[in-house]
Amino acid sequence: TVLKPPDPITAALAHPIAAAIMRALMGYEARTLPELASSVRQSLDATRARLEPLVELGIVQASGDTYTLDTLRHAVIALDVGGTKVLGALMNLHGDELDTSEVFWADFPATGDNDITPLCHMIDRFVTAAQGRTVLGMALGLPGVTDVDSGVVRWAPGPMWRDLPLRDQLMDRYDLPVYLDNDVNLGALGEQRYGA
Question: CA-based diameter of the chain, in Å?
Fold first, then answer.
C-alpha cells in the first residue's frame, strides 16, 4: 500500500497543539494569542507556530489580535452508526447542525458483504448540503469492536460488518480524513466536553 502525503489541512490539524487550539476556539467568542496559549498550555511561540498555518488555510480567522473559527467556509460530518440506524449531521466548526439525516439498517437488505452503501448515501447527501463549505473530515462512532489504529471494523451489529477496512474505504472514496472509534468512547468524549 502506498500512502499519499497528507494534504495541508490534514497535516495542520493533525498536530496535537493545533487540535487543542481548535477545541479552544469552539466557543463563539474571539480569543487572543495569550488566551489561546494559556488554554492549550503552550508558550506563545509554540501556539503561534501552530496557529499561523490554520490562519493561512482559512480555518481560523484573524481580526486584529483576536482569532475565531471560520464557520462559514468549513464543515465536518459526524455519524453515529448504531445497531438499528445511522444518525448523521453536517456541522459547522462550532458544532451547530447544518443538516441531519437518519437511515435504518432494516431498510437495506443485509448482504453479509460489508456493504457501506447506506452510509455512503448519507455522506453524499452531506457533501452536497455543504454548499460551498469545505468539508474538513468525518468522524464515526461505531457499535461493536473497531481497531482504531488500523481503521478496521472487526465486528459491528446492525450493518453486520466483519473485518471491514472502513476508514480506508471512506478515505479513498471521499479524499477526506476519517476518524472512527467505538460509539461509547465518543459518547464519553462528548460528555467530557459538553456535559451529560
Answer: 56
